[in-house]
């Protein structure tokens, strides 16, 4: 299923006001008031959710839902989003995986001033790459993403692909207790280890949903890990599924295989051959069921595997003339000072001996590396710790070349899951000028030191 921009807008206009909270109308869907100035109006606001039956979770949502409203645009087109902040805290929106100008990147004090309560900010950029992306704040991230400010951004291919059906599945494990109340988003002891995990796993905000899919058809499943901490070990026993894209970038289709580890921030686009009517498959995280995929009768003729998706226009790094830079990701909790901890400044992680201080607005003034615009670079990423880190770079897409721990078929991505004690090599052309965040996407690793700025001038 694919929409034209006009259909997207028409669909939104039809939806109108979405819900009522205790204090009257509390949130609205993304109907733009004036389509001459923006395509979407995206309101961040408090949102009462029922994640645990009979209990209210005081979440925060975009466009009246959490995970947020699915935004869509077509490759090569502009996307204009008016972000309206109806929270009582400041916020921004970062467009994860989108190659855009720095002013649109949503990083406070680097790209823009934070958007204050009651204010708005117009994001406006061209989507050069087709694929599955997502959006989230870059302010007080553990709490803001934790409360539900995460949403899918789907950039459709210029030309129709062979997929006639698709579903977006946003994976999130909520930090809530049995009564639906939020628990701590960042527990220091856990931030110094694998990160603070939530308790209730959901897909599109529903624990263990059953998804009805047209039997015999090939459906594109866009799985997006919008969670703060969890790496989902995806498997689909007995299912016929092929990988078509990783992290928004097409790959030569190949079988899903036994298991795919989807770290925080990462995406996988699968083609699934839906089983016969009434038959069920279970989409799992390791041994645990995430969702039931159920075939329902369809009158369409059976679908076949679509051709590979067209490549995105990402510059190919020239390894022969690339400069190599090394980045060590280190565990530094042993160095953490009690005075810092008492003041809420946790420094458990560092990159090349430097810990990012999430409360220091000037950190980005001291980039960890300065790259020449249009230079070619190889980064050697070395994980010195027993915990894995999904390493993410803003502003540019990189190619994963190889690893000392696993066989890599080189591919383009914005987030690489660096395993325990693994060393991996990535490469890219520094074609986007700016100051770009380079960080672990386990949010409490990022907030306790594992972030740096890479400057391209
Ligand atoms: Cu989703 Cu700074 O990233
Ligand atoms: Cu990002
Ligand atoms: Cu990490």
Automatic annotation (TrEMBL):
Q: Which InterPro entries match?
A: Cu-oxidase-like_N, Cu-oxidase_C, Cu-oxidase_fam, Cu_oxidase_Cu_BS, Cupredoxin, TAT_signal
> Does the record's keyword annotation contain Cell cycle?
yes
Q: Where is the Plastocyanin-like domain?
A: 55-159, 348-456
| GO BP field | cell division
Molecular function GO terms recorded = copper ion binding; oxidoreductase activity
The terms describing its cellular component in GO are: outer membrane-bounded periplasmic space
Q: What are the record keywords, sorted?
A: Capsid protein, Cell cycle, Cell division, Metal-binding, Oxidoreductase, Virion
- What is this protein identified as? Multicopper oxidase with three cupredoxin domains (Includes cell division protein FtsP and spore coat protein CotA)
Lineage, broadest ranks: Bacteria, Pseudomonadati, Pseudomonadota, Gammaproteobacteria, Pseudomonadales
């Amino acid at each position: 299923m694919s929409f034209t921009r006009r259909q997207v807008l028409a669909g939104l206009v039809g939806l109108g006001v979405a819900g009522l909270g205790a204090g009257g109308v509390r949130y609205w869907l993304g109907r733009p008031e004036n389509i001459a100035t923006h395509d979407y109006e995206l309101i961040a606001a408090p949102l009462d959710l029922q994640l645990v039956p009979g209990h209210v979770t005081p979440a925060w949502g975009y466009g009246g839902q959490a995970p947020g409203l699915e935004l869509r645009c077509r490759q090569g087109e502009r996307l204009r989003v008016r972000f309206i902040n109806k929270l009582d805290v400041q916020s921004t929106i970062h467009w994860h995986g989108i190659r855009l100008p720095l002013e649109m990147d949503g990083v406070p004090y680097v790209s823009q001033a934070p958007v204050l309560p009651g204010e708005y900010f117009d994001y406006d950029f061209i989507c050069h790459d087709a694929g599955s992306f997502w959006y989230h704040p870059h302010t007080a991230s553990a709490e803001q993403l934790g409360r539900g400010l995460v949403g899918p951004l789907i950039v459709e291919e210029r030309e129709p692909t062979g997929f006639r059906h698709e579903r977006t599945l946003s994976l999130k494990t909520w930090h809530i207790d049995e009564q639906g109340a939020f628990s701590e988003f960042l527990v220091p002891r856990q931030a110094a280890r694998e990160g603070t995990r939530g308790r209730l796993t959901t897909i599109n905000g529903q624990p263990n949903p059953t998804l009805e899919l047209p039997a015999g058809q090939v459906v594109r499943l866009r799985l997006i890990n919008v969670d703060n901490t969890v790496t989902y070990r995806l498997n689909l026993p007995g299912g016929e599924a092929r990988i078509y894209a990783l992290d928004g970038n097409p790959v030569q289709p190949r079988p899903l295989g036994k298991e795919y580890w989807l770290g925080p921030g990462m995406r996988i686009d699968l083609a699934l051959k839906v089983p016969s009517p009434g038959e069920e498959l279970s989409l799992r995280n390791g041994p645990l069921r995430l969702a039931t995929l159920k075939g329902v009768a369809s009158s369409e003729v059976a679908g076949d595997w679509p051709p590979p998706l067209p490549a995105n226009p990402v510059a190919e790094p020239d390894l022969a003339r690339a400069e190599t830079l090394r980045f060590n990701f280190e565990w530094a909790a042993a160095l953490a000072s009690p005075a810092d901890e008492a003041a809420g400044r946790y420094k458990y992680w560092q990159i090349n001996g430097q810990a990012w201080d999430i409360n220091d607005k000037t950190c980005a003034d001291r980039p960890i590396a300065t790259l020449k615009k249009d230079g070619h670079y190889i980064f050697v990423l070395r994980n010195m710790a027993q915990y894995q880190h999904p390493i993410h770079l803003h502003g540019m897409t990189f190619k994963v070349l190889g690893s000392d721990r696993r066989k890599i078929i080189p591919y383009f991505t914005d987030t690489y899951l660096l395993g325990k004690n693994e060393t991996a090599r990535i490469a890219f052309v520094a074609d986007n000028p700016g100051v770009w965040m380079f960080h672990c996407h386990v949010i409490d690793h990022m907030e306790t030191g594992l972030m740096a700025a890479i400057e391209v001038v």
